Amino acid sequence: MLRVENLSKSFTIHHLGQTREAISGINLDVAKGGFLGIVGRSGSGKSTILKSIYGTYRPDTGRILYDSRDHGPIDIMEIGDHALIHLRKTEIGYVSQFLKVMPRTTSLELVTQSLLEMGVGHVEAQAQAKAALEHYDIPESLWNNYPNTFSGGEKLRLNIARATVKAPRLLLLDEPTASLDNASKVKVREAIAKLKAEGTTLVGIFHDLEFMEGLCDSVYDMTNQEMRHALA
């Protein structure tokens, strides 16, 4: 489903006149329906890998090969902006620690819009959106509120709801349990396990290694830049 070959990315800090290497020589692959966990110290480039796969960053070298439902086998680094936007709407989901949304859009509208992009009818989309908000413990009193009034944990749960409700073919998870309490972590784990059982391919970054046990099929260790079997 996904293969990353010899991926490298550097960033230029213009006011210092410096170029800093974020990742170099990254090679990994994930089978269809598999779950790859990426582990490593802070600053090792884990998020850079996910953002490169999602197309937020343009790597300096390498290939990101993805087996698209609508486009067939493609290199994400070579497709145009319109094709990339289409992939994000219909095939590839991304959950980050931060919620970035259009202003004056309610939480219910945000999750409903995710389903409308998948071709779901409005009535059904709104019903599924409400179910997702309930699952992630977003109080009904907040459904018609703007997310900029939410707490950090509420924003993260909303972000997860928006991504998982679409059941994307490929889901990228950048610290999806950061700032969540144990009860919320359990709900996230349940949702991830359900998506995986239904065929979604996943790549995730976690500092909470216990959360990964029993979920991941394989792990990519940034320290040694190597793949290994799932955690016992």
TrEMBL record:
Residues of the ABC transporter domain: 2-232
Keywords (A to Z) from UniProt: ATP-binding, Lyase, Nucleotide-binding
Q: Which GO terms describe its molecular function?
A: ATP binding; ATP hydrolysis activity; lyase activity; transmembrane transporter activity
Stated name of the protein: Phosphonate C-P lyase system protein PhnL
What are the annotated GO cellular component locations? plasma membrane
Q: Which PANTHER family match?
A: IMPORT ATP-BINDING PROTEIN (PTHR24220)
Instruction: List the InterPro entries.
Output: AAA+_ATPase, ABC_transporter-like_ATP-bd, ABC_transpr_LolD-like, CP_lyase_PhnL, P-loop_NTPase
Q: Domain of life here? A: Bacteria
